[in-house]
Amino acid sequence: MALRQAGSMLVVFFWSVAVVLGQYGWSVTYTTQSICALKGSTVDLSCSFRYPRGHKVTSTFWFTKWETEDIGRDPEYAGHVEYHGDKEKDCTLRITDLRERDSSTYRFRLLTDQEGGTYTGSPGVTLSVTGLQVKVTGGHQDKTLTCITTCTLTDNPTYIWYKNGQHLDESTSPQYKDPVSSNYEDSYSCAVKGHEELHSPAVCVQGQSCNRVTYTKRRICVLKGSTVDISCTVGYYSTTSTFWFRSDKSTPEDLTRDQGYAGRVKYTGKYRGPFTLRITDLREEDSAEYRFTFKTYNFEWGHSFPGTTLSVTGNTTLYDTTVYHIELQEKIHEPSC
């Protein structure tokens, strides 16, 4: 069992039994048969291969549906897959920014310059992509909170709990261990340590209305020199004061007072929102995670709840336009963040 972490990568193995199938010098060895990874993370499908002497590998690729369809050329995977292997031994595939629809069985295929020189490694790697959710059970006075996934994260990952946007507790158990607030204003959320940016949606534990911040986009990729809008909404109370800040600051600092953003930042929205941060004339040093905080007459939203991560790239495109959403990137494959 292994929990593998690198940057924003979360890879969970159900088992690590190498699978070797082949004959007459052919084989593909998958390091794992089953992987459970968080939505939005990066995963490596690791494998190695062998082929008969006298053959020269001419083509290698991974597929999910038909043996002739390279997912590297599938528009559904554009900008999301990178082949990290070679034509000698290594056949590792990396999938980034995982989506639930990426859940599938992946197989590797190689072709050589000899007649009959094709081989597909079976059974492949079954990838399951899951998000985090907070499940609320019990009665009004004895609520129980559980951080759940659609597949099992193994090796005892550490779960992080947030209450009203504030870091609250850490535990190897997916169940929140302390008494749950009976206050209708309070909201809870969970994450896995090391991947806090992939947290669950905040849930109200008493009724349907509570304090929570919901970001329109969790990640945005835009071009240097363009304009971006980062938006969110809040629940329950009307706000008395609000501001946006960068999470990499030691203490939250209102961006409108930051000299590095002078003349480039504008806020819109009031009461419950939507609240929007607009940054113009973007610079690569603007790449950061942006969070929103607010106050009411008797409440202040915490500062540790993850926000929206902005990536600014200097990569050029044929498009001269203001970029607001990452969907544009998915359509034109630019910019590349």
UniProtKB/TrEMBL annotation:
N-terminal signal peptide: 1-22
Domain of life the protein comes from: Eukaryota
SUPFAM superfamilies: Immunoglobulin
Domain Ig-like intervals: 123-206
Keywords: Signal
Protein's name in the database: Ig-like domain-containing protein
